[in-house]
Amino acid sequence: PFIVTELxxxxxxxxxxxxxxxxxxxxxxxxxxxxxxxxxxxxLAYLHSLGIIHRDVKTTNFLVGEDFTVKMIDFGxxxxxxxxxxxxxxxxxxxxxxxxxxxxxxxxLADVYSFGLVIYELLSGAEPYADVPALSLAMEVLKGVxxxxxxxxxxxxxxxxxxxxxxCWSKEESDRPGFxxxxxxxxxxxxxxxxxxxxxxxxxxxxxxxxxxxxxxxAHDKSLLAYEWYHGKLPKDKAVKLLSGKGVGTFLxxxxxxxxxxxxxxxxxxxxxxxxxxxxxxxxxxxxxLDNKNYNFRSIPAVVRSYSNLLVSSLxxxx
Length: 319
Known about the structure:
Elements: H1 13-23, H2 30-49, E1 52-53, E2 62-64, E3 70-72, E4 79-80, H3 97-100, H4 109-124, H5 134-142, H6 151-154, H7 159-168, H8 179-190, H9 203-209, H10 213-217, H11 236-243, E5 250-255, E6 262-268, E7 271-279, E8 285-288, E9 294-297, H12 300-306, E10 313-314
Parallel strand pairs: 5-10
Antiparallel strand pairs: 1-4, 2-3, 5-6, 6-7, 7-8, 8-9
Helix pairs in contact: 2-4, 2-8, 4-7
């Protein structure tokens, strides 16, 4: 018997970082690094949406493909999140303060802390706490000591990216963002102008930055917050106010009062209508139509278009 698995030509993420910095002392092209961080954030957001904590987030637990796509591996110490999750496991240099300190209960925010250190290694090319003796590591982390970045490294990244990284490794769990918020930040940064010290993106990388509405809408419910047209728990009456006066085909998506479902609020020629949408399998969406048949769609804009020949446009949260 044998098992066939996907080949990730660049090895684990730590190996990819070492190879890249040997090739170019400035490390990864800025937008490529953002995309790699987004891959990691998406995978952890999905894991957390299932109620599972990875508990050993580090660069050697991600594999990198030829095109620099990053994939998560090693779920050997992952556990379902419960109020009694108290086993101290993980790799010390990436371990959150609450875990190092022996806290009896910890949450998915321990993974967020570790993610911040993964970002540090991607950005700097250095392993976190490489110069801190193992015996004093826990003491230093609990005192609030964090890795430092050289000025030239800081200049290669957007200041908001540095802020996000530091928020991830905050000592207090309540000060750390969740992965939904992290994805929002990364998507915004990936579509913003590059910092002055960053390398210019290649044509291939620039193409990856163009996130189409169709690609966005293929996301499952747990990652919808990363996209501007998703308004969360916005009440129906406020959705109507936001859409009033907008063109036919404009839509926004919000949580439905029915658990686990969404409502697509859409401007039609005869007024604003609200379409109940339920996440289905394989990233698709299910709508119960008037003819009592279930219809599957590959994206929420496709759901909206199915009701009429609309030129669909989304209404962002900042509108």
